[in-house]
Every structure is written in structure tokens, then in C-alpha cells.
Specification:
Blueprint: E1 2-6, H1 10-21, E2 25-29, H2 33-40, E3 46-48, E4 60-63, H3 67-75, E5 84-87, H4 107-114, E6 119-123, H5 129-134, E7 137-138, E8 141-142, E9 144-149, H6 152-164, E10 168-171, H7 178-194
Parallel strand pairs: 1-2, 1-4, 2-3, 4-5, 5-6, 9-10
Antiparallel strand pairs: 6-9, 7-8
Length: 209
């Protein structure tokens, strides 16, 4: 699958690593293009490109920036009509211990409103970058990746993508359920960092696959 990833930070790196290993063709772009170029050079099947030429034939775009930067970064790619856009962001406060929006909307819904022609899917926001980079299993169990989408194409594309890298896809319903997934991501961050339990913390429920 041809995939464009926006962002060369820790989450971007983990996604590039896992998706390239699974044989996907990755184009990475970032505000710091030199950083994107250095990251691309580490993995087979990965190239870097400026935003204006990074979209190409990609059927999937993953936005791995902070929430505040997500919409401008997506719009810089050009026309996203029909593309599946995976939003992995959490709308965090400056100290990472709270959310800036919630209850009646979500980061994913606001991104979808800004790029109405795209098929926005919420996913990967509950998985730490360190866990993502480490592979699909933790304590002999597959790590769940929850996803929420409003279109069947978006839902099945992301399910297939998660499957391809060995993680366990869990359908969390329509996109508005990002209102639940984003606080879950925030709780995960609290446990991992605020409570000092470390990044091996990952949300999971017995029996959900």
C-alpha cells in the first residue's frame, strides 16, 4: 500500500518502522525535511518529500503531528478527496496531563470537518511510540489498536493496515467515538508518565479482538 506519513517524531518513526517492515511503500514529510530525509534513509521502501509533492498516489495519509499542527499539515499536501486519513493525535495540554477539547467533539472530528472530502479514521492514539516501535506483542499478547471511522472503506483500510503490522485491530465504532479514545489516550499518558508506571502500560481489555 502507498502511504504518506506527516511527521518525523517518535510516533512517525514507529509507524515508518513497522509499515516499512510490512512491505508498504512510504513517503514521509515533515516541517523539518532534513529530519524526514534522515529517517527515510534508515528504512527500505521509504522516501522523503516536501509537503507539496508528498501525496502522490498514496491511498492513505497518516498525520503524526501534534493536534494543533494537523490541519495545516494535511492541507499542505493538496487535495485529499477520497483518501483515507488516519488521525493519531491527542489534543493535549502543554503539560500533557489534560485534554484541550472533548465531550461534545474530538480532534478527529475537527480534522474531518476541515478536510471534508477525506475519510478520516481515528487510530493509534492509545499506543505509546516506544510500544509501537517495539513490535505488536507485549507480555505475550497482541497489542490492541482501536480505530473509529464513519465509512466502510476507511474502516476496512485501517483494519487491514493494522493487521499487516501484526497488531490487533479493534473496531471502536463511528468517528464520534474518538471522544472516548482521546481521553483513553490521555489516561494512558497519565499512567505512563504522570504516575510513573512507564511506557509498557498499554490499554487492553480481556476478550476484545
Amino acid at each position: 500500500m502507498n502511504i504518506t506519513i506527516i511527521g518525523a517524531g517518535n510516533m512517525g518513526r514507529g509507524l515508518v518502522q513497522q509499515l516499512a517492515k510490512a512491505g508498504h511503500q512510504i513517503t514521509i514529510t515533515a516541517r523539518d525535511l532534513d529530519k524526514a530525509t534522515q529517517l527515510a534513509a534508515e528504512f527500505a521502501g521509504v522516501k522523503a518529500a516536501p509537503a507539496a509533492s508528498a501525496l502522490g498516489e498514496s491511498a492513505v495519509v497518516i498525520v503524526a503531528t501534534g493536534f494543533a499542527d494537523a490541519v495545516p499539515a494535511l492541507q499542505a499536501l493538496g487535495n485529499l478527496d477520497g483518501r483515507v486519513v488516519i488521525d493519531i493525535t491527542n489534543p493535549l495540554t502543554a503539560d500533557y496531563m489534560g485534554l484541550t477539547i472533548g465531550h461534545s467533539t474530538s480532534a478527529a472530528e475537527q480534522i474531518a470537518a476541515a478536510i471534508p472530502g477525506a475519510q478520516v479514521v481515528k487510530a493509534f492514539n492509545t499506543v505509546f511510540a516506544q510500544i509501537l516501535a517495539g513490535g505488536p506483542e507485549l507480555n505475550d499478547q497482541k497489542i490492541p489498536v482501536y480505530f473509529a471511522a464513519d465509512t466502510e472503506q476507511g474502516r476496512e483500510t485501517v483494519r487491514s493496515l493494522i493487521d499487516s503490522i501484526g497488531f490487533a485491530p479493534v473496531d471502536a465504532g463511528p468517528l464520534k467515538n474518538a471522544r472516548y479514545l482521546e481521553p483513553l489516550g490521555g489516561l494512558n499518558i497519565y499512567f505512563g508518565y504522570g504516575a510513573g508506571l512507564g511506557t509498557s502500560i498499554a490499554p487492553s481489555w480481556i476478550g476484545i479482538q
